[in-house]
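Lab notebook, design round three. We kept the backbone fixed and only want residue identities now. Task for the bench partner: fill in a sequence for the structure below.
Input structure tokens:
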């Protein structure tokens, strides 16, 4: 048709600026344009499929080509010239290959036998020489095939087809020769990669399939354009070939997943061996990677094909950068995790002198060690996740700019973390100070002070914990945006109501606090208190009551509000009180001297030397009774030894009085004496 008959093309409408903002990242572009790109790709594939499936159209195209003398000449010219050039090139390659049989055998004989850790270095020169010998036949093919293309004087389209096929063959042969240098399936002594013969043959076989399909498939798709094949069919063939290549790689991954998992999995430990912290973490990582490696690789292969098929701008480079950054971030994060854990373990291992100087510090280090390790792992995990999102173009760092939600969350977490750290420091410093004072008092023999500290410690710890928790909870609520003013007001009202309704409880607490501050009673004291009075040993002091253990084992729980007076029998010193009834005929001075002698004998014994503080104090005749006189004395003892010393004195006094004939009068003896006197008077009458 003439140019005048051609319809006038309308000027395309000027595209208006789109109001849709396309994110400048890989994931955003995929998400925003995936539907359109997928539709376009499917349209191309379906167009190619419709062309291939439309047999009448294909037959019509073939019939048209057969009737068209120009097309028939092009196809015939391309066919016989391709067979000629390709066939001569292959014959040249075979001839060169057979000519080099003797050099190959000699070179193979020079290769060292397999074995040894570094023996592969000795095989490198031999393998390099073998590679050169293997490339010479391919060079012979090129030296014959390429000049023949010029010699046969093909048509321009035929020349392009011949060059494309020859290039594809040379590329395939070069790739297979390079793979033979590493795998060498037929000669184990020339193999640089240590693997069994079956594995080398397996990978060589699949590599040949993948390389042949991808290279020759692409070459045939490009050559088909010279014969009028539509572009839709061309693009569909390319996408189909790449999908088949991806599926082949997936098949290889699935078939070899157990073999690779066995290489990745940590070896079994000898019986009884326990790995250290870093080794255990590395073993866990290896075992986890062995379980999921094939899933990760398959997803990556499909993502690679999807990026290519959807024609994402700069998709390959971004995918490769994202993959490399992911491996780098995960490796660095794992290394930091292991290193920081080891550093924490060393910091928690306290020297013996420091542990002795600060009692309980080692226990606290053991208590907070797992918490610190978990905190470090959590922070590293969050940081690694943010870096991964940034590496894949999500823009995670933008979430933490001024005024964004991430910035507010980060500030709140920082404030809460500082508050928790201060609370823990105050709590542990207070506990450590109390424990040091308790240990110091016990070491210096200050029993009263030690008992007092043991008494005050639970109450102080409880009060301190309540105060710290209140401040910490209020700060946390304030940081997360909760208005704490109504809570404080409500707590004040509730506190006033509870105060009015529990006056007795308040009285118990206040009275107990003053009793403890005045050091009136402590754990381990023997006291008499309460209404009615109860006597026993103090076992425990709570915030509102005192627990006594009586001599017979009974337990008395007495609230502090019922304690109006305290009789403490174990403070500073005590006196063992001694009272004896003597007949009027006994010499009291002689008896007093006997008592002093008994006390001296007791003080001379090791059992009682530490219990008795001073000599016996004879106070004299205390009372005059009908049966005799009462002699009173006292012996100064340690606070807790008054009753044992008194009982031992009574035992010895009774034995000494029997020995010396000192009479202790009794009511029945007096009655018997009066009856004898009455009988004597009656007899005389």
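Proposed sequence:
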């Amino acid at each position: 048709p003439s140019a005048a008959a051609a319809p006038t093309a309308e000027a395309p409408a000027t595209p208006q600026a789109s109001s849709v903002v396309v994110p400048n990242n890989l994931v955003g572009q995929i998400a925003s344009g995936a539907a359109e790109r997928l539709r376009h790709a499917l349209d191309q594939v379906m167009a190619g499929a419709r062309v291939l499936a439309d047999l009448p159209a294909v037959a019509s195209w073939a019939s048209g080509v057969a009737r068209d003398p120009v097309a028939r000449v092009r196809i015939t010219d391309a066919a016989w010239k391709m067979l000629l050039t390709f066939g001569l090139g292959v014959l040249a390659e075979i001839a060169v290959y057979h000519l080099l049989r003797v050099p190959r055998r000699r070179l193979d004989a020079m290769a060292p036998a397999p074995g040894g850790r570094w023996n592969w270095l000795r095989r490198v020169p031999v393998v390099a020489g073998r590679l050169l010998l293997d490339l010479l036949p391919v060079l012979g093919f090129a030296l014959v095939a390429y000049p023949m293309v010029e010699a046969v004087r093909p048509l321009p389209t035929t020349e392009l087809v011949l060059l494309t096929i020859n290039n594809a063959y040379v590329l395939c042969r070069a790739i297979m020769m390079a793979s033979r240098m590493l795998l060498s399936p037929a000669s184990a002594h020339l193999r640089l990669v240590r693997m069994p013969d079956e594995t080398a043959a397996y990978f060589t076989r699949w590599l040949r399939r993948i390389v042949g399909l991808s290279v020759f498939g692409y070459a045939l798709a490009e050559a088909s354009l010279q014969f009028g094949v539509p572009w839709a069919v061309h693009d569909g063939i390319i996408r189909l070939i790449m999908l088949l290549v991806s599926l082949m790689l997936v098949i290889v991954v699935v078939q070899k997943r157990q073999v690779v998992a066995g290489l990745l999995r940590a070896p079994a430990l000898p019986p009884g061996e326990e790995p250290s912290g870093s080794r255990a973490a590395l073993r866990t990582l290896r075992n986890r990677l062995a379980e999921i490696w094939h899933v990760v690789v398959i997803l990556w292969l499909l993502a690679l094909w999807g990026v290519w098929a959807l024609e994402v701008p700069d998709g390959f480079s971004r995918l490769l950068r994202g993959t490399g950054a992911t491996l780098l971030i995960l490796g660095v994060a794992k290394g930091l995790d292991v290193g920081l854990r080891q550093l924490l373990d060393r910091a928690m291992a306290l020297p013996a002198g420091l542990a002795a100087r600060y009692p309980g510090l080692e226990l606290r280090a053991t208590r907070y060690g797992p918490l610190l390790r978990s905190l470090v792992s959590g922070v590293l995990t969050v940081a690694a996740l943010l870096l991964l999102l940034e590496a894949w173009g999500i823009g995670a760092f933008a979430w933490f700019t001024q005024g964004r939600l991430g910035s507010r969350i980060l500030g709140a977490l920082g404030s809460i973390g500082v508050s928790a750290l201060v609370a823990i420091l105050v709590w542990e410093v207070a506990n450590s100070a109390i424990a040091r004072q308790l240990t110091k008092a016990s070491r210096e023999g200050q029993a009263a002070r030690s008992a007092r500290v043991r008494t005050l410690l639970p109450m102080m710890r409880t009060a301190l914990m309540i105060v710290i928790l209140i401040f910490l909870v209020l700060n946390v609520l304030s940081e997360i945006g909760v208005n704490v003013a109504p809570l404080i007001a409500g707590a004040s009202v509730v506190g006033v109501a509870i105060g009015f309704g529990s006056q007795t409880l308040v009285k118990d607490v206040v009275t107990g606090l003053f009793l403890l501050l005045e050091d009136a009673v402590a754990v381990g004291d023997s006291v008499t208190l309460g209404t009615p009075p109860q006597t026993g040993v103090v076992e425990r002091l709570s915030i509102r009551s005192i627990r006594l253990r009586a001599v017979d084992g009974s337990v008395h729980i007495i609230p502090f509000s019922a304690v109006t007076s305290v009789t403490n029998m174990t403070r500073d010193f005590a006196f063992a009180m001694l009272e004896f009834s003597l007949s009027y005929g006994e010499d009291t001075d002689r008896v007093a001297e006997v008592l002093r002698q008994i006390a001296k004998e007791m003080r001379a014994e090791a059992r009682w030397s530490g219990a008795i503080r001073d000599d016996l104090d004879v106070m004299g005749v205390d009372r005059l009774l009908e049966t005799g006189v009462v002699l009173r004395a006292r012996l100064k003892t340690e606070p807790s030894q008054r009753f044992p010393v008194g009982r031992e004195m009574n035992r010895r006094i009774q034995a000494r009085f029997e020995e010396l004939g000192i009479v202790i009068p009794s009511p029945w003896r007096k009655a018997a004496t009066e009856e004898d006197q009455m009988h004597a008077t009656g007899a005389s009458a």
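Keep this in mind before ordering anything: Residues 1-32, 51-58, 668-675, 677-685 have pLDDT under 50 and may be disordered.
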